[in-house]
Structures
1.
Amino acid sequence: MLAPSSIMPTRPKTTVVGAGVIGLTSAICLQEAGFPVRIVTRDRPADTTSAVAAAVWYPYKVRPKERVVPWSQATREALTPLAEDPSTGVSTTTFVELFDTPVDDPWWKPAVPSFRRATGNDLKPGYVDGYALDVPPLEPAVYLSYLERRFTDGGGTIDIVPDGIDDLCALDAPLLVNCTGLGARTLCDDNALYPIRGQVVRVTNPGLSRGLDDDYGPLALTYIIPRSNDVILGGTAEKGVWDDAPSDETTAAILERARTLEPRLRDATVLDVRAGLRPGRDVVRLE
């Protein structure tokens, strides 16, 4: 009689295409489920769009709602314990979204047990309502390095392939996972994908400890995300714009809005300016 372990089905060789946050995370999940995985990518993790992200947990410009809520909840639950290890680049902060008119509870509220209405000191002058929630912000450079290390320590390999990626993917891997983001527009002939240009400014931290966001009010679009040694200021969400070069005019506008929302930022020094192209779609394609 065979031992149970000897009759378990063999997991197929798997190729994950793309080495951003979603590519690395997918590869790790598959690897830890017993799949032999390699990543094929045009760019190293540090050079992907993920490296430009702000980044903080928040269901932003993503549909369909009924699928996004459980996805968001699962992501938050996976990220929160990582805040106990500084090497992951994950921490925990209070994030406040501000409104200049009364609003209903958000559709994603079930994904956040810590959700509460913003009141008192949560609100900035000129704002009458808001959401406050405890969320995990990420420092992309640190988090991507953590994911890459976790994947390679588990025996995974990352192949950098600037050209001919579709031919390489077809070799010796019956299971293919596409995590190419905006690249899927050409790789998979998916014309429903479009770019959403985002620009952020990184500045020194003058002592801020909570995140702020105005998505719809007088300073839209403005977000302020404190991290361990700096603050990320944003931003833009320019649908259909393919130019990923930072704009001086946009930088000045981001700084002015952020300093208006949080006057302490007037003492902050600009450290870096970056722009990237978020993959946009009317609904997430997950098959």
2.
Amino acid sequence: DATGHRHSVGTFTHKAEAKRHAGTLEVSARRAGWRSSDGAKQTWGDWCAVWWPTRPVAASTLLRDESRRNTHLMPRWGDVKLADITEHDVRAWAMKLIREGRSPATAQRCVHLLSASLKEATKAKVLITNEAAGVKVTTGQETRQR
């Protein structure tokens, strides 16, 4: 598994059957989004503690992002394993922020901050994909052309 432990999944009558089953489990584990055992067990909060000090942003941006991180990201994603974050969950969280009274722009900025952290996790080879990349926050209302 992701932590390096071996697990028994039963017995097989043929070696080829066991190998097919093992191959299926391996493909499934790779699709789960982790590249290393760290990615499978590291929470977003743990990754954020590693990533945050390396951000090359202006002091004013850091201050605003720190507020967003503490207010919106940490309560939702702090205890979630990196490999368990899905695009659907990110989109649902953004829409929940809007339903709770945040503006779509605030929700989008929160998604961008989460996406930036996951992008760096992919660069660090902790994750295979950034599940927050490309998530756009809309209210479903069309804006009028001026």
3.
Amino acid sequence: MKLFVEKNYDDLSERASKILIEEIEKNKNIVLGLATGSTPIGTYKRLIKAHKEKGLDFSKAKSFNLDEYVGLNGNHPSSYRYYMDNEFFNHINIGKSNTFVPNGKAENLEEYCKEYDRLIEENGGIDIQILGIGTNGHIAFIEPSEELVTCTSIVKLKESTIIDNSRFFKSIEEVPKTAISMGISSILKAKKIILLANGKNKANAMANILDNDKISTKVPASLLKLHSDVTIILDEEAYSETRRR
């Protein structure tokens, strides 16, 4: 596990984008695992800039997103499909048919989840997966629990996650209570993983991972220690509660 502690969010985004640019340039057919939320926006902006100014080519790339709210269609401004289109896909030369975001309006959600995992495998698996982390240690929408589902599935969101994500909705009442999320096995199958965390509100979650040699389903992000190629990139605030300095 590689750890980089950057001075601020801009430096974090710069570090992450350089790693991704190098991977995309090496492999034109790259399969990207993508995340939403506020943390990766700076990284996506730098990838867009590299595309527009230096010709970074996404024409043969494919992408799979981690999650989506159940009940929201892709036109809903708080859906993750809407986010990805507006923050990233609309600004690069990736074919929309090559971008996969879980369908929160799928008719048969359980069967759809199985199909999503099959689709990832049929496309050769994810080459590099971007992750954020929740204040409670969740990755994707894999919430702390006594047991975790290994594959893509429907998950019930914890109250802390609903509160955290309410900033993207008009009110907390509008936040969906369930979501489609990749499972921990789906994520750990990625060849490379980058975990990003910024801000003081992520400091306790990161300390739980970095100060502890154990793994626990109650801190889902800790299971990344089982992977052979994980890079963690933090800003100083997200690292501020960690004892290992």
4.
Amino acid sequence: MESNADQPSLSFSAVGSLAAPFLGRMMDKHGTKYVMALSLVLTALSFLLRPLMSELWHWYALSLLQFVGFSGTVMLPAGKLVGIWFQGKRGRVMGVAMMGNNFGGLLMPAIAGFALTTFSWQASYFLVGLTIMLVVIATLLLVHENIPSDGPLLRQSASRQITGYTLSEALRSRLFYVLILLFVVGSMPFSALLPQMVAHLTNVGYSLASASLALSLVAAGGMAGKLLFGILAERITAQKGMLISFFGLTVAIILLRDPPTYHLIWLVAPLFGLCMGSFGTLVTLVTQNSFGLRHFGSITGVLNAATVFAFALGPILGGASFDITGSYDTAFITVAVMIAFGLLLVTQARRGPFQTKSSP
């Protein structure tokens, strides 16, 4: 049956998407460093205040605070800073930067688990919050938007070197609306299928242990996909990389719906993760190539806000599929069709005016 435990987290992710336009505009106006630091402070406070919780609504309020700044901690700042600092190798570096979110997801539970077993649940939240505050200090000390003097471009003022469309110019571009649809379509596997993966696999005959292991392979593939497709994007462009990713994702979803052989899952699960995980890296690169970096925060913030539709529709699709038919087949088929439609959308995202040359 559908896991309702995932619904609050998806709802909070939607809140984070809605905050993205505001954070993106602030980033372009006041600088990446300060928006990133502010977003991290909000996240840290959400953990530092949890030991004071005494009501259920306290947990919801602090979780809301945590996700409000989510876009300002990873996707928005990484997209702009990597584009500035590593113009010749932005694909692979973008992949590594996007993997940082996954590493954080592995590291923070380990820190919390240590504090929980050694001290108390209050101490575990406090230690996580304190760790994030250390990242805030590092952000204030290390983050800047100056072009490195030892890079392919001589050090000059960022205002002269960083070019790109304004948000109003992007809104008048047909490509902007193609990207909006891509943001929604590319988020659907995460919002509609990933939360139901274990339930679906057990429903089609896998043991709980096997389904859980398959989910771990999805996670591992997701981390690898960010880096591998980032490197691939440097060789053949991000648009062509996304075509390959969406095609592989369509195949993986179809095979996951009803695996023809029991052991095929060990190949299909990491393929699903590999192609799904690459989306954040590739769509960021496509946005850079299409609209440049000067107003990257404002433009990407609005594009990211469109994912709220995926976070709203995904859980409904997964739940309705099981409630009406007793399986998740309808959800898998629907998402596969949407990703296949995404292939058509990618063909419309032609080589942008800010496309960097491929690495040698």
